[in-house]
Write a structure and sequence with these properties.
This protein has about 160 residues and is an alpha+beta fold. Helices cover about 35% and strands about 25% of the residues. The strands form two sheets. The chain has a five-stranded mixed sheet. The protein has a four-stranded mixed sheet with strand order 3-2-1-4, with no helix packed on it. It is elongated and about 55 Å long. About 5% of the residues have low confidence. The structure holds zinc ion. Zinc ion binds next to helix 2.
Length: about 160
């Protein structure tokens, strides 16, 4: 990691608490009517057996569902290169498996859409950490090159992954 990447990284951690979709505070506990995520003690999590009974829960749409409803992704990955055309299915299953793991741990980290655009594959996410994790998972599994660009004033992350063969 060079100096530039380092400064980009520290910027990410400075802005990560500034996600406008997470600023809306919920008093007490809540359940999202769309995905059943539970808000307790300041965090959105999946319903686990130990918090199955949520007392006096309000109904509040979670930040991830609000982003999906508004079509406002935080992370955008653009995959390109001739390797993608030949190994599309393997790449998509890696993306889906990576999402499954991340989403199980972090309720607000989800894939929004997978779309084809002129031979490229565009993946949008509700969370910055999933976008980052997908970029690294692609490099770890298939080599190639990932380029990470964190939003400056706006909260967000764009990842370009490419491999030619
Ligand atoms: Zn939700």
């Amino acid at each position: 990691m060079d100096k530039f990447q380092q400064s980009q990284k520290s910027k990410l951690f400075k802005t990560s608490t500034h996600d406008p979709y997470c600023l809306q505070k919920v008093e007490g506990s809540a359940i999202c009517p769309q995905c059943d995520a539970v808000y307790q003690a300041g965090n959105w999590t999946w319903k686990h057996p130990e918090n199955m009974v949520v007392h006096n829960a309000q109904t509040a749409t979670c930040p991830a569902c609000r982003r999906i409803n508004d079509n406002m992704p935080v992370g955008t990955l653009t995959l390109s290169g001739s390797f993608l055309l030949k190994h599309r299915d393997e790449i998509i299953s890696l993306i889906e498996n990576t999402e499954k793991k991340e989403k199980a741990e972090h309720a607000l980290e989800r894939i929004m859409d997978l779309t084809d655009s002129a031979g490229d594959l565009i993946v949008t996410t509700t969370g910055i950490h999933l976008a980052n994790r997908l970029g690294h998972a692609l490099e770890a599994a298939f080599k190639g090159n990932s380029d990470y660009r964190y939003g400056d004033n706006e909260y967000g992350l764009s990842v370009d992954w490419t491999r030619d063969e």
